[in-house]
Amino acid sequence: MKHLLATDGLDPDQARSILDTADELKKTLLGREVRKLPTLRGRTVITMFYENSTRTRVSFEIAGKWMSADVINVSAGGSSVGKGESLRDTALTLAAAGADCVIVRHPASGAAHRLAGWLADAGTSVVNAGDGMHEHPTQALLDAATLRERLGELKGRRVAIVGDVLHSRVARSNIHLLAALGAEVVLVAPPTLLPAGVETLPVTVSHELDAELPAVDAVMMLRVQAERMHGGFFPSAREYSITYGLNEKRLKLLPEHAVVMHPGPMLRGMEIASVVADAPSSAITEQVRNGVHVRMAVLYHLLAGEEDKTA
Amino acid sequence: MSDQVLIKGARIYGEGDPVDVLVANGVIREIGAAIGSAPDAEVIDAKGQVLLPGFVDLHTHLREPGREDTETIETGSAAAAIGGYTAVFAMANTDPVADNAVIVEHVWRRGREVGLVDVHPVGAVTVGLNGQKLAELGTMAKSAANVRVFSDDGHCVDDPLIMRRALEYSTSLGVVVAQHAEEPRLTVGAQANEGVQASRLGYAGWPASAEESIVARDCILAKHAGARLHICHVSTAGTVDVLRWAKDRGTEVSAEVTPHHLLLTDDRLATYDPVNKVNPPLRTAGDATRLRAALAEGVIDCVATDHAPHAVQDKDCEWAAARPGMLGLQTALSVITETMVRTGLLDWRGVARVMSERPAEIAGLPDQGRPLETGEPANLVLVDPDAEWTVRGAELASVAANTPYEGMRLPGVVTLTLLRGRVTAREGKIG
Q: Which residues from B are below 8 Å from A106, CB to CB?
């Protein structure tokens, strides 16, 4: 594997292999006082974030550091990016300066694909840490790792993805990865927040959250961004919360084994009630924990140079 | 260079046996089975190639003034001549905008100085293309540039009252208003055709309804005003249905389609390469099929290139940051050959209709798109229908190189272009 740009088209065996590596890394580090592996010593990993992010950037940074890579953070505000340099020039500069891997978050869909094209000659790997409304593949992988931990294999499991699917890169990445791993996906959202051509995706669609909850093994709540609330996608935050929010009453509709997930940051009281977020069925902090191991696994597969049986 | 040209063995409209055509003093002097006596004439052996009236492009961006780093009137005229054009309409979205007589006269004069193709400036409908205040249409129409077509292309005249007034006012000038049909409220942030592809790739959608709703509205407004309306770059099957309805009820509406909307589809988007970014966006294969049929049938009147040069830095970037548009003047005939002629949808007489006669009629050009007959102006193009060529952006005459057909092998080669009897291009070169 040279890059991780999307889960759309990701080979299921490759995905399982990353998840297995993440499990192994988690076990290896469990209970250790010094959480540092020498695997990526001497390798340089640069994060390039053109959007605000705390959790994803920190997660990648910790993942790199626990693997002993040199991790450098470049932010759009603190580099020549702010002086109007093009994405291409910034990427070529970082590659020329010695980056083995560039982790990029960018508001434009396809930005990571473009980077991979520009950096092909330099041999630099690219990880998509979120591009516009397109994909956020490591989020989907960490969600799958969390689900496997709680539920075992995902084949035949049913997962509801609830909320702003239209604008969500998390939803797109999860739809493709869950389908590849054999899970059923049901999207629950108002028609205004579903993408055109949703009928061609490997999903079913519902507008009735209450009707779906009793039959699912997991429910992924999506964040409702503030700008959507004023964009006429739904009448009011109150109506959204009443119709699509996961409250305590709805929690009781879920089977006992079902997992509640949220990619964060959460709007408590909006799409998810506080008491639900903190309930035992919630896997939200595990998602964050697993995020580090999954990102370690991704860096390992991209940079550790092992013979890749699926590539 | 001789002022007489004798074209030996050309098939007029690709029909019948090859004949000789003698051109002198800017007109077709004689058409005959074997014209022997023309001692002063430059003789061109047409080898049975197809002779057509010179092409007329209602929709070109020549970028001068303002973005001479991407195209100039000189380089754009060269691209036009090589592509078989004898008249082009230069859109008003220059910098400064062509919304007054000074700018349109400048463009017109530069076109005359270059002399490779008749450059007709399009005047802006509204001041600064801002959609709020009518530009001085009458002054531009009566200027030396004799502006016949007005458009805010690049922007939609979205205010229905401004559009109504523009249509009404245009009737006193005998000019046509050309609309870039895009309801801006429906395309905020839009990047690609709203549909399966855009959803999968994470592009904000440009819905077909944003085009169709404006086309329907403007057809109704034009009928009400008794005005002529032209629809730029039709891109959806739904627009074809609206046009058919409007024409059936007697609306004076005409429409153009670009070569790229006939050949390319939104399957192209998966590469994220912004060379495929254009406004309106590439649509589905189903749309392209309907557009081809509508052009053949005459519901869509003509082909227009929407030739839109862009600098490397405005294309070699992330998709959302890229400017929309693609080169078209030198590839139009080939794309029409591929999509319309090779498919049997149009014969060469049909190509003459959609690339020369109808656009000349729509714009009211008296000496373009004329029949190939003795005494008619010698605005001519010779096409080798069997030859093929490989498109290379760097080899095109434009300053910019943003062709979506890079590396593609296309049929149909323009081998000779004559503007009023003078050779402006031959075999891919000027003069």
A: 318
Does residue B45 have an active-site annotation? no
Q: Which residues of A touch B200 (CB under 8 A)?
A: 8, 172, 197
Which chain A residues contact residue B206 at CB under 8 A? none
> Hey, are the CB atoms on B202 and A114 less than 8 Å from each other?
no
Query: Does residue B195 surpass a pLDDT of 50?
Result: yes
User: What is the least distance, in Å, from the CA of B31 to any CA of chain A?
Assistant: 56
Alpha-carbon gap, residue B175 to B68, rounded angstroms: 29
pLDDT digits (tens, 9 = 90+) for A244-299: 999 999 999 999 999 999 999 999 999 999 999 999 999 999 999 999 999 999 99
* Mean pLDDT within B283-311: 98
User: In this structure, are residues B393 and B403 in contact, taking their beta carbons and an 8 Å threshold?
Assistant: yes
**Position A310 pLDDT exceeds 50:** no
Residue A275: HSE in the Cβ half-sphere, 13 Å Cα cutoff: 6
pTM given for the model: 0.95
Residues in chain A: 311
Average model confidence (pLDDT) for chain A?
A: 93
Across the interface, whether the CB atoms of A197 and B195 are under 8 A apart is answered yes
